């Protein structure tokens, strides 16, 4: 396992690389070039600058999260071929500088969605929070505007200003798209990028939808074990793999998260993993918890054991954290609580490894 940390880049992320390096057991980051909109080619010189900067801090930069997929590709518009070509060029450029895994998602319009970004807990910490009842009373535009206002000046992944301007138009375009249509558009994309990935040695890792259900009547096709199975069989190659996310899949209690990690790990189709906990508050109603099993509803030991048993070389990162100890910053991506998460996950992993080697 390689423990990593999401980092948005100089000028986009308030956390210095040096602080990330100081977290025990941290091997590298999952990096991004946030200045490029979906569909644009990432130039070689910018990729090189990012990798050099991360390496200079004593960290690896082998995973990129995310190279966003242009909406026209998801919609299957004629313009998609140009954007797919650009996507392949970006993949070729990334491979030249040692990138091994690209995390992405195929969620229409909305990446992750929460109804509160700074929900206050009894202990004074804040966390990301979701109540579907609130979503049902709001239009997509209202919820996007509220999220942008709450985000404290940070651009949230999936909520880039460039995309918000087209929200109304894009929502209308999705009105006639079924889940099967979306899956066919996804297949079209994969069939055209996976040969490039195989050639340059990059594994694509799709992140599940978050939360794990349909929003505003727009189809979502990456929510469950069966959805993931359909995706990995569409193009049967290790380059077409998953970034399993315990918190996203775990937002729906019907998903058996450790079993999903174990199955796709055994099938050789997990390239990256996000590990965090959730606490169920009701039907389609949850909050993000500390990583500790006892703080939420997921069995974190079983999740880490599935990774240990099936894909010990996987890139792992703690996922969203709470705001604790007075920290201010990008919602879901603080330093302190994610560092605690990484340390806890490393502790679980060490214990699992030692117990298993002792018993053999
Ligand atoms: Mn995640």
TrEMBL record:
Pfam families: UxuA. Keywords: Iron, Lyase, Manganese. It catalyses: D-mannonate = 2-dehydro-3-deoxy-D-gluconate + H2O. Its EC number is 4.2.1.8. It is an enzyme of class 4 (lyase). GO terms for molecular function: ferrous iron binding; manganese ion binding; mannonate dehydratase activity. One of its GO terms (biological process) is D-glucuronate catabolic process. Catalyzes the dehydration of D-mannonate. HAMAP family: UxuA (MF_00106). This is Mannonate dehydratase. It comes from Boudabousia tangfeifanii. The gene is uxuA.
């Amino acid at each position: 396992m390689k423990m990593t940390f999401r980092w948005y880049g100089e000028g986009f992320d308030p956390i210095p690389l040096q602080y990330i390096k100081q977290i025990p057991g941290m091997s590298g980051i999952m990096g991004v070039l946030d200045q490029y909109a979906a569909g644009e080619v990432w130039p070689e010189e910018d990729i090189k600058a990012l990798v050099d900067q991360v390496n200079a801090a004593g960290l690896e930069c082998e995973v990129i999260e995310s190279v966003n997929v242009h909406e026209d590709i998801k919609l299957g518009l004629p313009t998609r071929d140009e954007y797919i070509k650009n996507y392949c060029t970006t993949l070729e450029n990334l491979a030249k500088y040692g990138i091994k895994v690209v995390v992405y998602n195929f969620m229409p319009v909305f990446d992750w969605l929460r109804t509160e970004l700074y929900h206050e807990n009894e202990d004074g910490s804040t966390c990301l929070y979701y109540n579907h009842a609130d979503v049902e009373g709001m239009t997509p535009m209202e919820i996007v505007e509220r999220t942008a206002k709450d985000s404290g000046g940070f651009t949230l992944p999936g909520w880039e200003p460039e995309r918000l301007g087209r929200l109304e138009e894009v929502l209308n375009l999705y009105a006639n798209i079924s889940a099967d249509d979306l899956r066919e558009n996804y297949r079209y994309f994969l069939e055209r990028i996976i040969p490039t990935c195989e050639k340059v040695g990059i594994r694509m890792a799709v992140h599940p939808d978050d939360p794990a259900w349909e929003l505003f009547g727009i189809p979502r096709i990456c929510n469950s074990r069966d959805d993931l199975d359909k995706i990995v069989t569409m193009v049967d190659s290790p380059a077409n793999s998953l970034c399993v996310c315990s918190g996203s899949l775990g937002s729906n209690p019907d998903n058996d998260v450790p079993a999903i990690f174990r199955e796709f790990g055994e099938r050789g189709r997990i390239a990256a993993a996000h590990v965090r906990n959730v606490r169920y508050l009701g039907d389609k109603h949850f909050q993000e918890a500390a990583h500790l099993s006892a703080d939420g509803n997921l069995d974190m030991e079983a999740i880490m054991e599935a990774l240990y048993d099936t894909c010990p070389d996987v890139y792992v990162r703690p996922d969203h954290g709470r705001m604790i100890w007075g920290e201010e910053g990008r919602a879901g991506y603080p330093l302190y609580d994610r560092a605690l998460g990484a340390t806890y996950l490393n502790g679980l992993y060490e214990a699992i490894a030692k117990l298993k080697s002792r018993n053999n």
